[in-house]
Amino acid sequence: MKVILLIGAYHTLVLIGMVLTKKQKVLSDYFLSALFAIYGITLFLGYMEAYNLEHNFKYHFFINTSPPFIFLHGPALWFYIKSLTAKNFRFKPKYTLHFLPFLLIFLVMVFNVYTKPVEEKILAVTEEAFKNDFAFPFIIGMIAISTQGYFIWGILLIRKYDRRIKDYFSEVSDIDLKWLKFLLVASIFFYAVNSSMYAIDYFFNVLPYDVLLTTVYSFAAVFVAILGYRGYRQANIFLTREIPEELDKEPATISYEEKTDSSEKEFIDSLLRFMNDKKPHLQPELTISTLAKEINTHVDYLSGILNNRLNKNFFDFINFYRIEEFKRLCKNQNDKNITIMGLAWESGFNSKATFNRVFKKTTGKTPGEFLSATKPVNSDK
Question: 135-141 contacts: CB < 8 A, separation 24 or more?
Answer without folding.
Answer: 135/108, 135/109, 136/202, 137/202, 138/108, 139/67, 139/105, 139/108, 140/195, 140/198, 140/199, 140/202
